[in-house]
């Protein structure tokens, strides 16, 4: 399916949801948020906490991917877009970014895989197809199955910028539309490898060390784990009113404690 067509469908769904939630319109102030599926859980947690303090406000948080989030806020469809990648110079025009936290990108494998660490070059070789068997990197004689996110995913974009250099992810990689679906494929396939956000890691897959450093909140915060990206709230122009107050809450000690509780490294603590 054409990428722009897919974005159009998701934006249409967001508009419908916004319309359905606007009745009765005079009762609540409303904020529509959409974008990165990696940022979505922490955005939901922040929204829930804010609405508890402000019962006259309703905040609706949707996924759709970082590119969708940036596009929707740029077009004025949502008040806040979320992204787990840097904006391009073209995307930045007219938009303001707020970094709400830092997130590690984890290279995840099946729990039965006996490989525990890879170099950046080995990860690149696996994802571009130069390395095709786990025995080439110290593992068993098992075919490697690469799992990736869809184009438009902020996590994929950050992974490509950090790892792939001037090469591309192999064309026959299995494409998944969310971090959770990547984990499910890796969990079920002994030869699989994928990348997921640190906040979404769980014991059903194994995180590899990269260049000898394991991913954790501490190694992301001190910079020793290099595969990391910023979680962003994006708005069109200077935020006003309730939108500004929600962003201020997110960046306050209370909001940053919520960010930390979601296994994301806060920026203001």
Automatic annotation (TrEMBL):
Entry-linked Pfam families: PBP_like_2
InterPro entries assigned to the protein according to its UniProt record, in alphabetical order: PBP_domain, Phos-bd, Phosphate_ABC_transporter
Annotated PBP domain residues: 27-254
Electron transport found in the keyword field: no
This protein's UniProt keywords: Membrane, Signal, Transmembrane, Transmembrane helix, Transport
An example molecular function term from Gene Ontology annotations: phosphate ion binding
Transmembrane segments: 7-26
Matches recorded under NCBIfam families: ptsS_2 (TIGR02136)
PANTHER family found in the cross-reference section: PERIPLASMIC PHOSPHATE BINDING COMPONENT OF PHOSPHATE ABC TRANSPORTER, PHOSPHATE-BINDING PROTEIN PSTS
Protein's name in the database: Phosphate ABC transporter substrate-binding protein
Lineage summary: Archaea, Methanobacteriati, Methanobacteriota, Methanomada group, Methanobacteria
């Amino acid at each position: 399916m054409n990428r722009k067509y897919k974005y159009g469908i998701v934006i249409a769904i967001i508009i419908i949801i916004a319309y359905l939630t606007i009745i009765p319109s005079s009762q609540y102030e409303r904020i529509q948020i959409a974008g990165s599926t990696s940022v979505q859980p922490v955005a939901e947690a922040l929204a829930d906490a804010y609405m508890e303090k402000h019962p006259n406000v309703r905040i609706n948080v949707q996924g759709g991917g970082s590119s969708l989030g940036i596009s929707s806020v740029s077009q004025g469809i949502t008040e806040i877009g979320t992204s787990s990648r840097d904006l391009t110079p073209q995307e930045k025009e007219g938009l303001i970014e707020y970094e709400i936290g830092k997130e590690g990108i984890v290279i995840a494998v099946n729990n039965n895989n006996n490989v525990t660490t890879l170099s950046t070059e080995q990860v690149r070789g696996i994802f571009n197809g130069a390395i095709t068997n786990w025995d080439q990197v110290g593992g068993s004689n098992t075919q490697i199955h690469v799992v990736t996110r869809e184009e438009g995913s902020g996590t994929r974009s950050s992974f490509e910028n950090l790892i792939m250099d001037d090469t591309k992810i192999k064309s026959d990689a299995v494409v998944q539309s969310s971090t959770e679906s990547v984990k499910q494929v890796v969990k079920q396939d002994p030869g699989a490898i994928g990348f997921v956000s640190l906040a979404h890691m769980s014991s059903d897959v194994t995180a590899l060390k990269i260049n000898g450093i394991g991913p954790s909140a501490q190694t992301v915060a001190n910079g020793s784990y290099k595969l990391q990206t910023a979680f962003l709230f994006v708005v069109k122009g200077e935020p006003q009113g309730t939108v500004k107050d929600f962003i201020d809450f997110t960046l306050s000690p209370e909001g940053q404690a919520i960010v930390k509780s979601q296994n994301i490294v806060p920026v203001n603590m």
